[in-house]
Amino acid sequence: MSIKLNCDLGEGFGAYTMGRDDEIMPLIDCANIACGYHGGDPSIMRKTVLLAKRHKVEIGAHVAYPDLQGFGRRSMDLRGQELIDCIQYQISALDGIARTNGARVTYVKPHGALYNDMSTDPELERTVMQAIASWYRPLELVMLATPKDKKSVETAFDYGLSLRFEAFADRGYTRSGYLVPRTKPGAVLGVTAAVAQAKAIASGTVRSTKGHKLNILPDTLCVHGDTPEALEMLKAIHLALQTPAD
Predict the structure, then answer these.
(1) Which of the four, 27, 97, 111, 237, has the lowest number of CB atoms within 10 Å?
(2) Taking the model in full, what pTM does it have?
(3) Alpha-carbon span 102 to 88, nearest angstrom
């Protein structure tokens, strides 16, 4: 399976840095750039956009609940038009910076709690899809690849929206195909396990932390930029996916 590597980048804020963006960017195909609600600020967004442009990396808006202090990993009771406004506000910020610097935002990936919540809440999923579909030009939406992708495809079709399905090299999976909560054992994988999982995902399967086999067909594979060993993981995964199987 041909699969693109993506990473969440630009997640620092002010004087605080997050991850090793300069070293990671050359290893990936797509950069999910924080838009200020869970990380990132105007200067960091500009620098990350220029870094992506330099390395010919596709740019996506990494939108979140307005939860800077919680890094966007806490659920919030945002619904309907209020959530649509929050999402489009973030896309607008990154889109404006990108266009000003000769680049372009081509997709949107929800972050953290928003990403997880929409995976299990059909009403929230429809709201997020509506926010992306009503943008002034076409953008693709990144969603978690699960054995139940067909339902999301049907919903996206109602909005005329294109989806990209995503899997994770550095996160553990539940039996249902969702990510193990970060508060649970096995949620975040080390380098060796992440490389093995990346190779399995590229072949169309992943195993839950309990050993259950799940069939998934993702378009893109993610390593979180704030994972402690993200750079080492990406180097190893990049090499492993380019090396022919025996």
Answers:
(1) 27
(2) 0.95
(3) 20
- Cα 106 from Cα 143, distance rounded (Å): 15
Exposure pattern of 181-203 as b/e (b: 16+ CB <10 Å)? eeeeeeebbebeebbebbebbbe
pLDDT tens for 115-146 read: 999 998 999 999 999 999 999 999 999 999 98
Instruction: State how far the Cα of 88 lies from the Cα of 124, in Å rounded to an integer.
Output: 15
Q: What are phi and psi of 105, to 5 degrees?
A: -85, 130
Alpha carbon distance 132, 213 (integer Å)? 32
DSSP label of 180? P
Mean pLDDT of the chain: 95
Q: Which residues of 157-175 are buried (b: 16+ CB within 10 A; e: fewer)?
A: eeeebebbbbbbbbbbbbe
Instruction: Give, in order, the Cα–Cα distances in Å from 11 to each of 71, 120, 140, 166.
Output: 9, 25, 21, 20
Q: How many CB atoms lie within 10 A of CB 34?
A: 30
Q: Which of 19, 4, 15 is nearest to 229 (CA)?
A: 19
Q: Is 110 helix (H, G, I), strand (E, B) or coil?
A: strand
Could you give the C-alpha distances from 117 to 64, 128, 142, 177, in angstroms and in order? 11, 11, 14, 14
- At residue 131, φ and ψ (nearest 5 deg) are -60, -40
The CA distances from residue 223 to 129, 163, 230, in Å, are: 24, 19, 7
Nearest residue to 155 (alpha-carbon basis) of 116, 113, 124: 124
